[in-house]
């Protein structure tokens, strides 16, 4: 009978984020994209962790709006793009 070789399994340590559920709800509900919500939380969490927390809150019954993971054209991003476009026009290009 062959003996099984023991393999070491990597132990994952869960990172603790210093973000309250209230902060997550406010950032999520007032943002146009996951990335914008991450910014509103001061970069405390990455997008994947935030989305995971949102799913957990939804599963507990919190009614959070639906949002795609992909960045949308937020008003501030559109303003930045407009300024960039204007800079080329004013330079005579």
Topology:
Layout: H1 21-29, H2 34-40, H3 47-59, H4 75-90
Overall description:
The protein has 93 residues and is an all-alpha fold. The chain has one domain. The protein is 48% helix and 0% strand. It contains four helices and no strands. Helix 1 crosses helix 2 and helix 1 crosses helix 3.
List keywords for this structure.
93 residues, mainly alpha, 4 helices, 48% helix, elongated
Oligomeric form: single chain
The Cα radius of gyration reads: 21 Å
Number of helices: 4
Helix content: 40-55%
Runs in which pLDDT lies below 50 for 5 or more consecutive residues are none
Distance between the termini: 78 Å
Question: What percent strand?
Answer: under 5%
Query: What is the makeup of the main sheet?
Result: none
Order of helices and strands: HHHH
Helix and strand composition category: mainly alpha
The overall number of domains is: 1
The residue-averaged pLDDT reads 83
Number of strands: 0
The outline comes out as elongated
Short description:
The chain starts with 20 loop residues before the first helix and ends with a helix. The chain has 4 helices and no strands.
């Amino acid at each position: 009978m062959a003996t099984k070789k023991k393999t070491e399994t990597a132990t994952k340590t869960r990172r603790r984020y210093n973000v309250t559920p209230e902060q997550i709800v406010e950032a999520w509900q007032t943002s146009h994209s996951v990335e914008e919500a991450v910014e509103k939380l001061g970069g405390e969490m990455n997008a994947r962790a935030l989305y995971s927390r949102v799913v957990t809150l939804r599963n507990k019954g919190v009614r959070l709006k639906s949002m795609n993971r992909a960045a949308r054209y937020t008003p501030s991003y559109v303003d930045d793009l407009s300024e960039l476009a204007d800079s080329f026009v004013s330079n005579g290009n």
